[in-house]
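Hi support team,

I submitted a single chain yesterday and got back a structure, but I'm not sure I'm reading the token output correctly. Could someone confirm the output below corresponds to the sequence I sent? I've pasted both exactly as they appear in my results page.

Thanks,
R.
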Amino acid sequence: MPAFNPQQASALLNKIEGLDWETIRAQMHMQGYSILKDFLSDELCELIKSHYNHQQLYRKTVTMQQHRFGYGEYKYFNYPLPNLLQQLRTQFYPYLVPIANAWSDALKLDRQYPDSHFEFLQQCQQAGQNKATVLILHYQQDGFNTLHQDLYGEVYFPIQMVFVLSQVNSDFTGGELVLTEQVPRAQSKAIVLQPDQGDVLIFTTQFRPKKSTHGYYRVNMKHAVSQVRTGERYTLGIIFHDAVS
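Hi R., thanks for writing in. Yes, this is the structure output for that exact sequence:
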């Protein structure tokens, strides 16, 4: 993937800094997700997609149906990450840390996350987690992903991101993002979202706190992708913790 020049990197950082983080934090606390519209340009989306078949960029390819994960394929990038992806991962992280730590406080968890992503990755390495988890996912017609959580070891960050690289109703139809929320003493709640090309979904990796009359309790959440009816759908996943394997 071509190098991300200093001007582009600076523009990206300014864009992240300029987001309405107060609203994003409120949405994450209230519903466990937030959608950023038109964050990546069409050109950057196409650039990332164009490198899907450059095998030297990836450490591992997973065919979903072989593992009963769904129907499709995804690839984990190898270290060192392409500069654009490294910048996205590193620059978003400190803005998400206050949310993660507020969740830990609300649920009285003995867990606080460091301010810098470098420090957090050191914690992953100490736990034997040193494999990159940034990934690109590709679904064709009839492709889907089953409900799951992206946990790769004892150390994990409770928030992750998905960047949609394909255009809804042009490149593909169907393929909605599905979140499920486990409601205590009741059936699970399903949330169906359809972000478009360039949009970013920030969402919980495993759980979020929910307020009750007696304080906060933990609500477990999973995510999936519904069946792609036509075309091809690409997404980029940014997971902030590293993996054991």
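A quick pointer for reading it: The mean pLDDT is 95. Let us know if anything else looks off.

Best,
Support desk
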